[in-house]
């Protein structure tokens, strides 16, 4: 990570419920990154849910990387995609917000939207457990970390076409990370 985004501020937000099985993967990956140590200018936070208060933090950064569990896809599949503001993104406002909705608030309130990515892993069980992942989700942690390391690298892809890729340890196949 010697080539971290020099002079640019990056915010990594891992979110998900720590007591709902594989939903804890976002905070766990964030905690792992925090333990590794991040380059200067890279901040990592773990959240149970996304709340409106995060909007002020988002606009203070050049790049934001969300880490989350997914329910659509093959268990163990890791995806990275860029996000754009979407005011119509579903949220209940009572319990959590969608990252695209937070970006829409950034756009509306601050006329500024950070370059944003979502790195997600498809989970296989979301029953009660306390920070305990299934082996499938555990296997997805390292590919998620790989994506984050690429995204905080100076040569990280910046367009949607460059980052649309998936990998799956469940199937034993891994799509190569896109060429820079």
UniProtKB/TrEMBL annotation:
InterPro entries hit by this protein: Pept_HybD-like_dom_sf, Peptidase_A31
Region (Disordered) residue spans: 158-180
GO biological process, one term: protein processing
Any one Gene Ontology molecular-function term assigned to this protein's record: endopeptidase activity
PANTHER family: HYDROGENASE 1 MATURATION PROTEASE, SLR1876 PROTEIN
Name of this protein: Hox1W
């Amino acid at each position: 990570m010697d080539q971290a985004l020099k002079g640019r501020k990056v915010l990594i937000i891992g979110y998900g419920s720590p007591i709902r099985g594989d939903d804890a993967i976002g905070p766990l990956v964030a905690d792992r990154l925090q333990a590794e140590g991040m380059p200067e200018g890279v901040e990592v936070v773990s959240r149970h849910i996304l709340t409106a208060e995060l909007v002020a933090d988002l606009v203070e950064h050049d790049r934001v990387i969300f880490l989350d569990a997914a329910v659509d896809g093959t268990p163990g599949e890791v995806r990275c995609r860029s996000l754009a503001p979407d005011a119509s993104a579903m949220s209940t406002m009572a319990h959590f917000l969608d990252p695209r909705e937070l970006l829409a608030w950034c756009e509306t309130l601050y006329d500024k939207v950070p370059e944003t990515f979502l790195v997600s892993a498809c989970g296989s069980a979301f029953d009660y457990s306390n920070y305990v992942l299934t082996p499938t989700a555990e296997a997805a942690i390292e590919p998620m970390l790989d994506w984050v390391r690429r995204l905080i690298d100076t040569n990280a892809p910046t367009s949607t076409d460059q980052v649309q890729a998936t990998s799956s340890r469940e199937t034993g196949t891994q799509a190569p990370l896109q060429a820079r």
